[in-house]
Design a protein that fits this description.
heterodimer; A: alpha/beta; Protocatechuate 4,5-dioxygenase, Chain B; two-stranded antiparallel sheet; 9 helices; 10 strands; globular; B: mainly alpha; Protocatechuate 4,5-dioxygenase, Chain A; 2 domains; 10 helices; 0% strand
Amino acid sequence: MAHITASVYTSHVPAIGAALDLGKTNEAYWEPVFKGYEPSKQWLKEHKPDVIFLVFNDHATAFSLDMIPTFAIGTAAEFNPADEGWGPRPVPKVIGHPKLAAHIAQSVIQDDFDLTIVNKMDVDHGLTVPLSVMCGQPQAWPCPVIPFAVNVVQYPVPSGRRCFMLGQAIRRAIESYEEPLNVQIWGTGGMSHQLQGPRAGLINKEFDQMFLDRLIDDPDGLSKVPHIDYVREAGSEGIELVMWLIARGAMSDINGGKKPTVRHRFYHVPASNTAVGHLILENN
Amino acid sequence: MSLDKPYKDVPGTTIFDADMSRLGYHLNQFCMSLMKAENRARFKANERAYLDEWPMSEEQKQAVLARDLNRCIALGGNIYFLAKIGATDGKSFQQMAGSMTGMSEEAYRDMMVKGGRSVEGNRYIEEKK
């Protein structure tokens, strides 16, 4: 049977992707950010999964206001990096895993989460920047990726609780897949940031560190934090952090298993307008 | 029964909810059209004429022409959509975010390098008074 071996959490700031694409990783501004991911790149090489289930959000790229799915699973064979107005990022095409994605869709919908199934979608920086920080600049991504898009652009976005429970349904779905695949689940977005209005530039290190602490040790309690606390404390775009709870909900300790091992933890301010947070948890 | 909107008392912040989305639908879809290179070229060649192709309010059109992002947001714009205007103008996301704060580009960048805007005094509208 397939199983989840680890979860990875990371911000997906577009400027980090641009810095990498434009060869600025050694600049004083960016060096600490990329240094923070060096151990993660090594870890991923040593723990290469068969499939990555990647939770992210679209930023008015694939989904305009024509359609706003709350949870959308990418079931296509491949996904092209999107042109977000600056031209597509020079990164490899994302290869999907239609068979596992279809299985997860079937299982999770039968488990009461009404997913939207997407057979055609370009993927924006929300998906490609996490791959870049974890893999560098390869000719091809190391394995197939199942994109899972969450609406965090138009309120109301799904609650932390809903995301946490969805993660549990995704774990059950993956564990009922017959092929013995090694799957990682990644939760992306955040950390504190606000991109709009006179309060733009808000950063809250205390909130972010508390979020990382509780994500490790008290995910169930953390999942009960209401939206307004994210908005007030972590900025209007800090709400992206609810996506981390999907990945955390899929870990085995939530289902009575052992606590995960913290393999890496990193935090840095700033990357453009945003606080960068990163965590790797391994299942035991 | 009225809907629960506990985010109305956060200073300097407009939450893009279903009501704002309804107000800003055409404004945001205009922004979305700038994802295509040929539309960017047509917009740049004659902004007013391009905007007149969209059923937007005159106020929304004026806010776009003035690149007043705060006004665009008050009229239903969402920052991820408005960012397409910035991309068309060759602006970075940091330049766009900074333009809404009343700070110079340099002062905003410096604030971010020093750890960003503090949440202290920025949680409730009453604190700002």
